[in-house]
Design brief:
nine-stranded mixed β-sheet; 22% strand; TIM Barrel; alpha/beta; four-stranded mixed β-sheet
Length: 389
């Protein structure tokens, strides 16, 4: 059984802000996030940032976001580390004027290794960024080439040393596993390289086939091999124990951290807390209604923002989010999402007897020995409500 004893509760009154920056140097073949490759040369960003400011004003008119305390701000993409400092400064100033924040608010920026240097880290720190998440994916050039990922080999091997200088106090990296021609040894070489620099947060994602991506198309056309599912299952089974011995505990199926270094923003998603999504393709959630902005830059720039739609039931969302958490969960504090679902508690009781999970009528926690079967168990819970079939 997972030994992480910290208990996760639902927290009312807090919210997150997500800002999507869609531009990249090069679009990766596997990536399903909305992004546009623009090359290495300067590109115009002013109109996009102007639209973000307009969207903030529009969102505040349709829902009282200002009544919440912001506990996290997350810049994702795309590659937000390509965003200009003057535009970010102006955007952050606007956000600080409109919203109230917790004393320990987390400000995260996603970055590519090529953009990590002393000058940028100092400038981001001055903007208020206190956490960096770097999309490394792998330190093996052949693996990066297969993924269609732009990379500068020299920058890749400098990034961990620069981050460990703690110019920005909190940081983590992302890795991908199950890539064709990637071996177990190669993946654990990446893991050990990261651990050698006293890493505090690590996200490890299994390569998946996402509809509409270049990689997915090539697999279906037999031009590329599919993800290595056998390797993915092995890593799911072995990685949590391996990293636990190194001081990084699993807190979500793909995320590991030293105590106190978990990503607050992502935890807010998994805890079903409200979040304001800004930018092309961004989503937002008020607590009982959602919206989704268009996945088209041209449409978004015309100020066509997604409209709030009331959710009839949040049960499936709750399963797909909260049940990914590997810490102990106080399910009683989440009862508004499941209390009227027949068979929910009896299913947890039957799993508890089989030691698939821990459940004492109040707190729930997965047994990590069954983590590779997580999706099938979540589907069993979804099956309790026939409208999700």
């Amino acid at each position: 059984m997972n030994q992480n004893s910290e208990i996760v509760f639902y927290e009312s009154g807090k919210m997150g802000i997500y800002i999507h920056f869609p531009y990249c140097i090069q679009k990766c073949s596997y990536c399903d996030f909305y992004s546009i490759g623009v090359g290495k040369n300067f590109f115009q960003q002013e109109e996009y940032f102007q639209t973000l400011h307009i969207e903030i004003e529009q969102r505040l008119k349709e829902f009282p976001w200002e009544n919440f305390l912001v506990s996290s701000v997350f810049l994702g993409g795309g590659t937000p580390s390509l965003a200009s400092f003057p535009h970010l400064h102006k955007l952050f100033k606007t956000i600080r004027e409109y919203f109230s924040f917790t004393m320990d608010c987390e400000w995260t920026m996603e970055a590519n290794p090529e953009d990590i240097n002393f000058e940028n880290l100092e400038k981001w720190k001055d903007l208020g960024i206190n956490r960096i998440s770097v999309g490394v994916q792998s330190f093996h050039p052949k693996v990066l080439e297969f993924l269609g990922r732009y990379h500068d080999k020299d920058k890749y091997f400098q990034v961990l040393e620069l981050l460990s200088k703690k110019i920005i106090s909190r940081y983590g990296i992302d890795l991908i596993y199950g890539i064709p021609n990637q071996t177990i040894e190669m993946f654990y070489e990446d893991i050990n390289r990261a651990l050698s620099h006293n890493l505090e947060h690590l996200s490890c994602y299994a390569l998946t086939l996402e509809k509409g991506t270049e990689y997915s198309r090539k697999v279906y056309q037999k031009e590329n091999p599919p993800p290595n599912e056998e390797l993915q299952t092995y890593i799911l089974k072995t990685l949590p124990s391996y990293l636990s011995k190194k001081g990084l505990a699993i807190y979500e199926v793909s995320n590991f951290a030293k105590l106190g270094n978990e990503c607050k923003h992502n935890l807010q998603y998994w805890k079903m807390l409200p979040y304001l999504g800004l930018g092309v393709s961004a989503h937002g959630f008020t607590g009982n209604a959602r919206y989704a902005n268009p996945r088209s830059l041209q449409v978004y720039m015309k100020q066509n923002f997604g409209f709030l739609k009331q959710e009839n039931s949040l049960y499936l969302d709750f399963l797909l989010c909260t049940f990914r958490i590997m810490k102990k969960i106080n399910l009683q504090s989440f009862e508004s999402f499941w209390i009227d679902i027949d068979g929910f508690e009896s299913k947890l009781e039957s799993w508890s007897k089989k030691e698939i999970c821990f459940w004492d009528k109040e707190n729930f926690q997965w047994n990590l020995d069954y983590i590779h079967l997580l999706d099938s168990y979540i589907y069993e819970l979804a099956d309790l409500d026939s409208k999700f079939l």
